[in-house]
Amino acid sequence: MTAQLEFDPIRLPPECEALRREVRAFLAEEIAAGTFDPDRPMHGDMHNTEFSKRVGAKGWIGLTWPKKYGGHERTFLERYVVTEEFRIANAPVRQYFVADRQSGPILLKYAPEHIKMDILPRICRGEVCFVIGMSEPNSGSDLFAAKTKATKADGGWRINGNKIWTSNAHIADYMIGLFRTSPSTKENRRHGLTQFLVDLKTDGITINPIYQMTGQHDFNEVVFDNVFIPDDCVLGEIDGAWKQATSELAYERSGPERFLETFYVLTALIRALGSEPDLRSAEGLGRLVAQAHALRRMSVSVAGMLQAGKEPVVEGSLVKDLGTIWEQKLPARVRELAAFLEPDVGNRATLDEQLAFAMTIAPKLTIQGGTTEVLRGIIARGLGLR
Amino acid sequence: MTENVSIVAESATRIFADLADPQTINRAKDAAWKAPLWQALTDAGLTLAWVPEALGGSDAGLAEGFEVIDVAGRFAASVPLVETLLAGWLLSQGGIASPGGPMTIAPGRPSDTIGLNASGKLSGRARGIPFAQDCEHIAVLASGAEGASIALVETKNCRVTPGANPAGDASNEVLFADTPAVEWRPASAGFDRTAMLLMGGVARSVQTAGALGAVLRMSVAYANDRVAFERPIAKFQAIQHSLAQLAGEVAAAVAASGSAADAIAHMQSFDDQIFLEAASAKIRSAEAAEKGAAIAHQVHGAIGFTNEHILHRFTLRMLAWRDDFGNESHWAVELGRKVAAGGADAFWPLLASR
After folding, report:
1. Which terminus of chain A has fewer Cβ atoms in its 10 Å neighbourhood, N or C?
2. What's the pLDDT tens digit per position in A119-175?
3. What is the ipTM of this complex?
4. Torsion-angle region of B227 (φ positive above 0: left; ψ -120 to 50: alpha; else: beta)
């Protein structure tokens, strides 16, 4: 590949702005009704089934999917707008976010018709929660070292082994899991893994909580003890899961959630600084604004290229690499810029509380969904270095 | 910037590749290559791409002009092409026809002001004016009793102090002391020094993104060629990750500058959204120049620090361009103040406005 990076200057079309107004009005109503507090993402449950159902009723889950599966056949740029507005508001999207972003699209592509007809409309209604079953105790970034085994049985497969760091498994209905159906080969160490749809209520599955350093509980260990999965739950090619991930990765890695996770501290800083910041604060703030703007332009550009049918895998990885490092450092920068604020300035207490929380979650941002090191490897391959 | 490059950009690429190949220029003993290059750029209508035909230009459109600037950045050629484009654009804002030949534009620093009196005489000092000593004319945005005015000045009527930027391109202090304007007109309503500096800033951002793209290609090629410890250094993860970070800086500069250029090409007026786009492009591309130059030099090792190697043609220029039309600190302060004045609740709507 040539080292030519493309970031077309994509503009959101008018239908996106109409949708944005609708989304903002909906979120304002939910905030007014006390469903969640946009200034306090550290409080309240990010998992809210009733809220999810109301989002589904608005038609904002499965936005781009075919109507026959409950979707709305709208564009990826419209989905982009919905995603960024929900993220900025710190709305509780945990119930459906993974299903909407990646599990649903996988089912659309690889599941048999009766499963699509059964599950996709329920995702769109905000009723079901999906998790990603990839990491294992000895296989995190090194995905292709996965050992949890699927052995052929009569009419299906038997699963034995463990998945780990499985966010939300304790509240979820389904997993899309990656299991070993054959050993890897000398020629291709990525060979031998297959994607399966797993109903987490199936006998033989045990879900054990793993508490995080923040005191929160997202992570779980999922233990499979001779769990039966029927044949029609195989997603795509047996032994060939590695072929199925390219363009999906660009979606997963280039979205607004890859640089907006700690954004609330920047908004709170602006509130705390007031309308006439000193020179130091103004420069620091201006740089952060410019960096945020550049990231958003990159991210919107990738969304536009995906909508146009391109496969900007390297560009998508660049968004996540730059975006997650930026959102990780953001609380530290904001803390520096807030250092000389008067202690009793309006929202100082909220800012301090937000900073404390953002600082504790910061380390995970460059780990989840593809570590910095993995991303840089992908970028290097795209540049023609490996 | 995009794969759908215009005929104008293709023509610019051809001319630069034929007449301003960086390797050839770097070996040249004198500046004899500049005249044929300038002639070819002029003949192709590229130097006055932003000037309407009625005012002596080729009226190629703002978007096409930015593509030419991108190409100029990719070749990092030391001729006042971008400055002439900007000067022609500024003169057109006042309905003043562009003379032939290379031009530059003043002021180039936010702290400098040039006054214009009722009889068309200019006074003031403009620092860091690119290529002033090489240009016959200077397009000036001056302030008079009736507000902003645009004036065309002959360089020979100014006092130009010889000087150069770190890349060796002329960068001069220009003193206007009762200097007569050839022609002057009031600027249109709403056009001010901020708008002019932002336009120059976006031009420099696009140029920087072009240069960064060239630096990335050069660095990847070098890492694949250079063998150390018995293998190409591209095979070392440390080098791979450094170059991935360089690619990130290139990406940020390309996205921010491309978006700003597109925004300006389609704008109605210099409003807050254009300010955000343009100031962010200048800030982010300058940051990318700093980080990108450091990585590219580290990957190239000692050879990249020699005069013989062409890397410095790109890295020193993009570092020097940071200072033109307001450096990143200046625009960060302005942008920070604007966002603070707008208030916290208006911030996200501004960022998400397009």
Report:
1. N
2. 999 999 999 999 999 999 988 888 889 999 999 999 999 999 999 999 999 999 999
3. 0.97
4. beta
